[in-house]
Design brief:
Blueprint: E1 6-13, H1 27-39, H2 41-46, E2 54-59, H3 64-71, E3 80-84, H4 88-96, E4 101-106, E5 112-113, H5 117-123, E6 132-134, E7 137-142, E8 147-152, E9 159-164, H6 165-169, E10 187-189, E11 196-200, E12 217-218, H7 221-232, H8 237-262, H9 266-351, H10 354-364
Coiled coil: 270-336
Keywords: Coiled coil
InterPro entries: Put_rhamnosyl_transferase
Length: 365
């Protein structure tokens, strides 16, 4: 497949499908979801090393006014387009008509792709019979508890559909009921890397942090930080602090909502409230511990880098001093040898004059 004739389109469902019921149309749900989208999915899109893609974020037309209002809070790049579910097909047709092949990558609005995924899609030498490009290996990340683990999906929700543009415009579609059907198509892997993160957050209804085995959990803090940086990019301490407060505020809101719905006797309500406050304090302490660990690892890396630079500078100075000392010794030796060399040359010239040649020959005789 020609590398120059393809277009990468990333399709992201926000609330355009029926999961979550009518709650997905409410301002509270949309505000929370866009906050999660901004924190994770949008961040990984902005962090792509190759920005030659268009992301289409699909929303329910009935929530358009709320969506537009909430989007005012965020910095959305030009290649990330929010579009209603009814308008997405005509828009895709116009985009597909501009290229020979189109690659439709898929990701949920609360997960992340590795920074090199788009670049890999553009560079990959795709087989002619390939219908799907899969990313089977990735990570699970529970940010609230700062837990990271390896994960493998034989038929993953992180896949890319491959169409010849003329076939797509003629109506060809790969019909799937869920991502579990993906491996039944002609497929190949994007590469052997771990290309995605499934995020565990407060609004998850179907995903939990359940690694296949304890060996899959990544406990090395330095390795964990390196992996997360390849998805999140650099993150300031202020951003981390702000997000921790968002997590706490969200948890408090959820807990009070549950209490309000439960009703019941006032004394029982106070007792429940005290229990929930205690739980929130524990959760807050876990988050602060995660923050301290993150900062400590960052400071250790900075300290190591400074120490390495100091050692390299000291070595360079030592090499410079040794070179200067060697140059001085060579110069001094040359100065000392100069009179001796001069005398040798003078004697050589004298010994080659005719009378002396005759005298030397006489001596030899």
């Amino acid at each position: 497949m020609s590398l120059a004739s393809r277009r990468v389109i990333i399709r992201i469902p926000l609330n355009a499908w029926a999961f979550g019921g009518d709650e997905r149309l409410s301002r509270e749900w949309i505000a929370n979801r866009l906050s999660i989208f901004n924190r994770f999915t949008l961040r990984s899109l902005k962090n792509q090393t190759n920005q030659n893609f268009t992301a289409l974020v699909a929303y329910d037309k009935r929530s358009e006014a709320i969506i537009n209002d909430e989007l005012e809070k965020y910095d959305i790049p030009d290649n990330v387009v929010f579009v209603s579910g009814k308008e997405i097909d005509p828009l895709m047709d116009r985009m597909v008509a501009e290229c020979e092949y189109v690659l439709f990558a898929r990701i949920d609005s609360d997960d992340m792709y590795h920074a090199d995924v788009v670049d890999e899609l553009h560079k990959k030498d795709i087989r002619e019979d390939t219908e799907m490009i899969l990313n089977q290996d990735g990570y699970l990340y529970d940010e609230g508890n700062n837990q990271l683990a390896y994960v493998h999906f034989p038929s993953p929700p992180f896949y890319t559909q491959v169409y010849k543009s003329s076939d797509f415009l003629a109506g060809k579609r790969f019909e799937t009921k869920s991502h579990r059907d993906i491996s039944s198509f002609n497929w190949e892997l994007l590469n052997s890397n771990r290309n995605y993160i499934v995020i565990i957050h407060g609004q998850n209804t179907s995903t939990r942090f359940k690694p296949k085995s304890e060996d899959d959990v990544i406990t090395d803090p330095v390795k964990k930080q390196e992996i997360l940086r390849s998805f999140f990019g650099p993150e300031t301490a202020a951003e981390r602090d702000r997000h921790i407060m968002e997590l706490v505020d969200s948890a408090v809101s959820r807990k009070f909502s549950v209490l309000a719905e439960d009703g019941g006797d006032e004394i029982d309500g106070i007792h429940k409230l005290n229990q929930e406050v205690s739980a929130l304090k524990e959760e807050n302490e876990r988050l602060r511990t995660a923050l301290a660990e993150f900062r400590q690892n960052e400071e250790e890396q900075k300290t190591a880098a400074v120490q390495l630079r100091t050692e390299l500078n000291a070595l360079k100075k030592q090499q410079d001093r040794a070179k200067k000392d060697t140059d001085r010794r060579v110069t001094k030796l040359q100065e000392q040898l100069s009179p001796v060399v001069y005398q040798q040359k003078k004697l050589h010239r004298i010994s080659n004059k005719p009378p002396l040649k005759w005298f030397k020959g006489l001596l030899k005789g």
